[in-house]
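Human: I'm a chemist; would you kindly supply sequence and structure tokens for a protein?

Assistant:
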Amino acid sequence: MLIAPSILSANFLDLGSEVRSICDGGCDYVHIDIMDGHFVPNLTIGPLVVKEVAKISSKPLDIHLMVENVSFFVDMFAPIKPEFMSVHIEEVKHLNRLISHIRNSGIRPGVVLNPHTSEEALKYIIEDVDMVLLMSVNPGFGGQKFIPNIYKKIQNLKDMIFAKNPNCLIEVDGGVNDKNIDLLKQSGADIVVAGNYIFSSDDYQKAILSLR
């Protein structure tokens, strides 16, 4: 299991130290939620802050765009060169074109599904992406309650991936903790995003290891 702590739950007054701590604690990616106050009812950070995070992070960045006008934000963050950049299928009108643009920018493209969006929506794009991010909470805020129907959704998606794109990863974001991590793995998840569980702990390394 790969672990991607979400800095949405970090102490933003000491963000540099927080990023170093999760990297030293053994995370695999640093997950960054970009929110514009329109697609979701929250605002987070812009490219100037993410650029500084990239400088101090010893782990690759995993950027999740929860925004309207998605292509504008892709171009805004692409120069930072994260490992992954994921966009919501609910918001993008020309998904094939945008996925190709992200890949041509030297970034591994991902697609995000909100809890209510069926995995069948990926039927004609799954072969073109490196990761699918399944939301197990409604996006916008950290610390929300986990939605358990995600398990079946992961299993269905895993079958689709096995048939069409075996190298595609499944990432799960929202309410992940040491109580549901086993079922997530058994269902077929490859990466978990954990914010509140890790950053509310007294020992980030211990929390990351408990998930792994």
